[in-house]
Design a protein that fits this description.
The structure is a single chain. By secondary structure, the protein is an all-alpha fold. The chain has one domain. Helix 7 runs parallel beside helix 11 and helix 8 runs antiparallel to helix 14. It starts with 17 loop residues before the first helix and ends with a helix.
């Protein structure tokens, strides 16, 4: 057997225990791990949202979030219990903390949101590699774990979360958003929607989207049995995904970083984009973004004329 520091799948490993048997099934392993990480990110996001709901501030998290206030009376014992368990400084209390801890909160919010939204959309790409790895393992070939590929992909999006947290903190410092998790003002939100809508029609968007929709040719052309190179392939896949989705992700600045309604909706949109074989759906979504952005800009102009 060749010596390697990468996990080995296939007949060369004797299934002597549950861990080894799991490692011998790359698809099951990657589904379980990505699912667990996505669930953890959504749970963390849910805790932060629950703290606002318990304090009666759900509506401040963005459009549509006020619906959660209907389920919990802010003055009830349940609200007090939720606030005590899930206490998180989402609003002005974050600005009262030290700059370092306030930024750590913003980074945690963006990190959780990004992983919750983007890890599930990587499922087809990771499953494609895992299927190829299983085929290679049946030929007794050495294959690195798909988790290495997922780590490279996740590193790109965590980098995006860091950049977004810096932008978010800058907007908060400049008074362009009222609190760290609050939505942007209508004129800034309108610009963000217009940018996202226009990008949905761009050549770069569709080049990246086609690569995300067809991961198999990418892996056939770049197949490797080295863990370090597989991590770099994960970085490349993450960059392709970033090129496809960055503008849509920035919509969370417009609607509120912890707006779980928009998180779920945008996550579904980006997942659907990647499983389709054409770009027509992306253009329809782009048209919707443009209509929303234009509506927001018109409302700002009307408000100024009326004033």
């Amino acid at each position: 057997m060749r010596q390697t520091d990468a996990p080995v799948y296939g007949r060369s490993i004797a299934p002597s225990g549950p861990v080894v048997r799991a490692l011998a099934r790359p698809r099951a392993l990657v589904i379980a791990c990505v699912g667990a990480l996505s669930l953890a990110a959504w749970l963390y996001t849910g805790l932060m949202v629950a703290s606002a709901v318990g304090a009666g501030e759900a509506a401040a998290l963005g459009p549509g979030m006020g619906v959660f206030s209907r389920f919990v009376d802010p003055g009830s014992a349940a609200a007090a219990w939720i606030s005590a368990i899930c206490a998180t400084p989402l609003g002005e209390s974050a600005s009262a903390a030290s700059p370092g801890s306030a930024f750590a909160l913003v980074l945690a919010m963006w990190g959780a949101m990004t992983l919750a939204m983007m890890l599930p959309t990587a499922g087809p790409m990771l499953a494609t590699y895992a299927e190829l790895a299983e085929s290679a393992a049946r030929r007794n070939e050495v294959t690195p774990s798909p988790l290495i590929l997922a780590a490279g992909y996740g590193a790109v999006w965590l980098g995006f979360a860091l950049a977004a947290a810096l932008v978010s903190a800058g907007l908060r410092a400049g008074g362009l958003v009222s609190a760290h998790a609050a939505p942007a003002g209508p004129w800034l939100a309108g610009l963000i929607f217009l940018n996202a809508g226009l990008y949905q029609f761009s050549a770069l968007k569709h080049a990246c989207l086609r690569a995300c929709q067809r991961p198999a040719p990418f892996f056939f052309a770049n197949w490797t049995t080295r863990a370090a190179r597989l991590f770099r392939l994960g970085l490349r896949q993450g960059l392709l995904c970033l090129g496809c989705c960055w503008a849509a992700m920035l919509i969370m600045v417009a609607v509120g970083t912890m707006n779980v309604i928009w998180m779920a909706g945008l996550g579904m949109v980006m997942a659907i984009e990647k499983v389709l074989s054409t770009g027509r759906f992306s253009r329809v979504v782009g048209a919707v973004f443009l209509v929303i952005g234009a509506g927001l800009m018109v409302s700002v102009a009307a408000a100024r004329l009326g004033g």
